[in-house]
Q: What sequence folds into this?
């Protein structure tokens, strides 16, 4: 595949942009692969990429029932941070954040990583204690975050009203190298790199059954025929329970919609990401100028990928005391994605009761930031058929053993 570069842009400008090739191939499925990944979201594509890059396994298919990145990967609000509390979480989220720093160069694809900084506001005494504790934990884990006072919050984000009557801003947990990236570009960049390694990214290919013999996986049936494999990764976020059912086991996952919305575009007014978890809202400004706004998950399990009117009202009402300018904005569009929630708000990167089947799910409301690290860990698990240093703590068995990795506070978004 030809490299993207300033020289390539100049060359194509001279020939009226007729020489660009497709970013990835659209092949017909083969009869057999060494590994199949179900789900061409960020996590599935990153898994495939690191299977090839780190382990030399390239006879791989990534099967997607819709279009790549059309699930939560293309629906999220793109916040990247690694300020989690527990050690296994800090390890995988910080690995991921650090991979994001150079991902554009590595993939030769501009994912528009923007380390503009993330603040999680403390608006109650309870949150002050919680975030100071996280800042101390992060220091021990080698994750660079700091507790900042209210005046510094105001300095970093001048449009904020820190003296709200109900929820004054008391300070915040600040991660200067957190930020955002372009979500579609992350999926597209990994897909292009996978295709370049000879892998088959197959869209419009729904997995309808998982074949097993003697407790081992032998392949999948799809809307485009049967395909054999002895190594299968299920990486389908909100659809994980369905796929697990096809394979004959259950997962500790509930699926629920998470919604977001954007305002009309306005001039640049906010160059940082702010999460206000007490009131259940968060805010950033996109490169186009839209205010990107999100709140908590729907209050009931569902598979809806749409927005609802009461959600706009609840979320904007929650944020308007701290961001009064929101009251003067028109809202442009809203949407939803189906997130996969575990009881401890930490993911599953795990072998399953069926030999050769591995799952990667449970990232819930916070998996965009985890895509590179998760792909790295899942590829390692699938290649060696055994948990590795980044994935070992995230096995399904922790729910049987009561060994939870509680991240309900760090997850940030209300559940
Ligand atoms: P997905 O991108 O959903 O990919 C799974 C794919 O599997 C889908 O494309 C689907 O079509 C496919 N699939 C399903 N069933 C089948 C089948 N039978 N056969 C073939 N393919 C199948 N995280 C953050 O870190 N920061 C944020 O700011 C953030 N904001 C969010 C805001 C919203 C509104 C939402 C919904 C989520 C947010 N998240 C955020 C969470 C994040 O988006 C997800 O955790 C992450 O994108 C999950 O990626 P994935 O690759 O696992 O899943
Ligand atoms: O995990 O940082 C996050 C997040 C923000 C919005 C949704 N999830």
A:
């Amino acid at each position: 595949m030809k490299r993207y570069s300033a020289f390539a842009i100049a060359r194509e400008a001279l020939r009226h942009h007729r020489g660009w090739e497709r970013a990835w191939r659209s092949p017909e499925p083969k009869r057999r692969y060494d590994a199949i990944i179900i789900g061409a979201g960020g996590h599935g594509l990153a898994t495939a990429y690191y299977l090839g890059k780190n382990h030399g396994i390239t006879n791989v298919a990534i099967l997607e029932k819709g279009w790549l990145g059309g699930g939560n990967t293309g629906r999220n609000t793109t916040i990247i941070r690694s300020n989690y509390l527990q050690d296994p979480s800090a390890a995988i989220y910080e690995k991921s954040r650090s991979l994001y720093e150079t991902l554009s160069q590595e993939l030769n694809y501009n994912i528009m990583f923007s380390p503009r900084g993330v603040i999680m506001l403390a608006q109650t005494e309870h949150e002050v204690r919680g975030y100071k504790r996280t800042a101390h934990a992060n220091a021990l884990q080698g994750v660079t975050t700091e507790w900042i006072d209210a005046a510094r919050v105001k300095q970093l984000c001048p449009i904020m009203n820190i003296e709200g009557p109900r929820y004054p801003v008391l300070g915040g947990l600040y991660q200067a190298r957190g930020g955002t990236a372009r979500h579609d570009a992350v999926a597209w960049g990994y897909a292009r790199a996978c295709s370049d390694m000879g892998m088959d990214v197959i869209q419009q290919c729904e997995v309808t059954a998982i074949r097993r013999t003697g407790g081992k996986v032998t392949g999948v049936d799809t809307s485009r025929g049967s395909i054999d494999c002895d190594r299968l990764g299920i990486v389908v976020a909100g659809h994980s329970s369905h796929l697990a059912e096809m394979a004959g086991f259950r997962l500790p996952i509930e699926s629920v919609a998470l919604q977001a919305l954007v305002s009309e575009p306005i001039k640049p007014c906010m160059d940082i990401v702010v999460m206000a978890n007490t009131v259940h809202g968060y805010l950033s400004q996109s490169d186009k100028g839209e205010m990107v706004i999100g709140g908590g998950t729907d209050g009931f399990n569902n598979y809806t990928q749409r927005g609802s009117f009461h959600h706009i009202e609840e979320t904007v009402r929650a944020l308007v005391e701290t961001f009064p300018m929101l009251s003067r904005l028109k809202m442009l569009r809203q949407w939803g994605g189906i997130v996969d929630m575990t009881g401890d708000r930490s993911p599953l990167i795990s072998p399953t009761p069926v030999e050769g089947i591995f799952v990667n799910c449970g990232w819930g409301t916070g998996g965009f930031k985890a895509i590179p690290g998760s792909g790295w860990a899942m590829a390692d698990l699938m290649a060696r058929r055994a948990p590795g240093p980044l994935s070992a703590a995230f096995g399904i068995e922790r729910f049987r053993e009561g060994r939870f990795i509680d991240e309900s506070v760090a997850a940030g978004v209300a559940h």
